[in-house]
Write a structure and sequence with these properties.
The structure is a homodimer of 382-residue chains. Chain A is an alpha/beta fold and 382 residues long. The first copy, chain A, is 42% helix and 19% strand. An eight-stranded parallel beta sheet of chain A has the order 4-14-13-12-11-10-6-5. A three-stranded antiparallel beta sheet of chain A has the order 1-2-3. The first copy, chain A, has a three-stranded antiparallel beta sheet with strand order 7-8-9. In chain A, a hairpin with a 6-residue loop joins strand 8 and strand 9. Chain A is globular. Chain A starts with 9 loop residues before the first strand and ends with a helix. The N terminus and C terminus of chain A are likely disordered.
């Protein structure tokens, strides 16, 4: 992909259908069509996929994890190698998280203070520190096009008081993140704030408004999909989106299933990331236009039909019988093909969502997908 | 690849350089340029590689294992799915072994009788039988373009008497294999005999002559690379090749390192197979034009040079630092890239060997590769 001539990032809306929106984030490394799904490239690789295939699947942008990369191989080492894009052969835009979420979920002996968080690496036990300033420094060393403020992902459940204390700490960290970003970032790089406040609508509103006062290029909704359930998640998304400015992209972090993504698009969200397509691909699960399939199931042993005849993905043209054979045999090619097919399914889902919004048919489209996943998906689950 | 119009298989020599030969095996599914290296697609997959990339690496033909496929998913099941080519998305020629070697090396409770061999599956313990007739039936069910007679791969070491008894059993099985092949094979399919006789030159000669009397489309040299050492292997290859007809392809089974392959080409061998490029790729080892590298070695952590600047393989353009990171992190992409780069290195080796033979420069080429592997390869080994 050619590097775009622009040195600025911008967001423009092309169409709306109810609260659902379609538009474009323009970055120096290329255009991100929204609603966008970002495959997760945790440790500088979208697991079990060649970067060319991630691109061919339709992905405009990928996500990489600051926590994983600062531990291994190290941000300074990636910077020496010419930055993350060059290191991993991905020329398009990259969004990096701040590392906060994985510090909470993976690291050992965490200690959170006003200044930041210290923790032990889950790989070798080394003691490391992450502050709002260091999180930005690391993301700049990686060369991330869209960077995230360091926040505390409030655990669920949280009392109102816990949620408020945590949210206010995240706000102070957001302000410090923005200040560090102003000093370190290259032209065209963008910084997103992250709304917290657990499932308390008024706390979410206060968090969003305070972030808007600080001023960010986009706004993420964090601290969801952590056990609160779908209804609480979607209510919180609605309450938050209502406060966010129309002219900035909105990013629901860590979500999710095809049905959850469409429900969030209905409520005005523009960006998503989730390990589900790749993790499922390594665990014999396929997302298809006919629903979710478990390829370990013996019913596929002699099913010579393609994995997903409705998909344009090369990997989805392999027969279910062959994929069944591969996953039963523990062959790496099974994980490779299912990861590719799943990532492309998510991209096709977003492409159809964008077209449906542009045509004013999003509600019918979302209902159609819900029906496909209700009819076939649950049978195969687990 | 288009299916060739011919319905016959044939072999023609294009050039010789000493005993080294270059030519073409023409099959209904395409041309195999010799000397040829066949990547091993054990269980209907060249491990960790998309079939498109196996083809793009320069491979004209792959090998698949009858033993593995008859156990899982079963030959009848593959036949129902339209044959092995369609099942695994490989349209070029496929050579299948007879299953004999894996029965000896993998199966449990083997019992060899005149009629054939019974054994227990190493996967689920099921009792199975393999006779010369069943081995051909299975290979025809798979739709293999080049099939192998069932033989007993004589264990090493073997006394002269053991080697002779075993070789004579293999000869009787070869005659029965040819008879079964005559009844079952489709037009254009070919059957190769397998010379046995351990490291006893006169037994090898008797085996070869008896097989020639039966008459096969090509002749394999079996029972080598089983611990006899390089000198004994090459002496046996020389003694056997001297007896084999010039107008039939010669196939050294299960060999080997780049240096061993070139030494065998020097002695008149046309075809090879080995798991080395793919197995090494899954174990952090790379074959390059600069020698063999172990990517786990910390010396590569900040080496931003390409894996192999002399290779045209896309996978060999990734930096050593990135590959080091991937293999240290246990990422599947590491095995994917190294398998691809290794398979393509073997194909580039064969392409250069063919060109060198055509130009009368094979000895100098082989010496150059030996030097590269002596200078760099051994340091990294193990």
């Amino acid at each position: 992909m050619q590097r775009d001539v622009t040195q600025e990032s911008s967001f423009s809306l092309k169409a709306r259908d109810g609260e659902a929106r379609t538009g474009e984030i323009v970055t120096p490394r290329g255009v991100v069509r929204t609603p966008a799904f970002m495959p997760v490239g945790t440790g500088a690789t979208v697991k079990a996929m060649f970067p060319e295939d991630v691109r061919a699947s339709g992905a405009d942008i990928i996500l990489a994890n600051t926590y994983h990369l600062m531990l291994r191989p190290g941000a300074e080492r990636i910077a020496k190698a010419g930055g993350l894009h060059r290191f991993m052969h991905w020329e398009g835009p990259i969004l990096t998280d701040s590392g906060g979420y994985q510090v909470m979920s993976l690291a050992k002996l965490r200690r959170i203070r006003e200044d930041g968080v210290t923790f032990q690496s889950h790989i070798d036990g080394a003691t490391l520190a992450l502050s709002p300033e260091r999180a930005i420094e690391v993301q700049c060393l990686l060369g991330a096009d869209i960077q995230m403020v360091l926040d505390e992902c409030t655990p669920f459940p949280a009392t109102r008081e816990e949620a408020q204390t945590s949210m206010e700490l995240s706000l102070r960290w957001a302000a410090r993140s923005k200040q560090a970003f102003g000093k370190l970032a290259a032209p065209g790089q963008a910084l997103f704030g992250i709304v917290q406040g657990s499932i308390y609508g008024d706390l979410r509103e206060r968090s969003a408004k305070a972030l808007i006062d600080i001023g960010f290029d986009g706004y993420a909704i964090g601290g969801l999909a952590v056990g609160e359930g779908q209804d609480a998640m979607l209510d919180t998304v609605s309450a938050t989106a209502a406060v966010l400015p129309q002219d900035r992209p909105r990013y629901l972090m860590g979500v999710g299933t095809p049905v959850d993504i469409l429900a969030a698009i209905t409520r005005g969200v523009d960006m998503f990331d989730c390990v589900m397509p790749t993790r499922s691909g390594r665990h014999c699960q396929a997302f298809t236009w006919g629903g979710r399939l478990n390829l370990r199931n013996a019913r596929y042993a002699e099913d010579v039909s393609p994995l997903d005849p409705e998909s344009a993905c090369p990997a989805a043209q392999y027969s279910r019988a062959y994929l069944h054979h591969l996953v039963k045999s523990g062959e790496m090619l099974g994980a490779m093909l299912l990861s590719y097919a799943n990532v492309q399914f998510y991209q096709e889902l977003m492409a159809r969502a964008r077209a449906a919004i542009a045509n004013g048919e999003f509600a019918a489209f979302a209902e159609d997908v819900r029906r496909r996943y209700r009819d076939m998906g649950d049978i195969e689950d687990g």
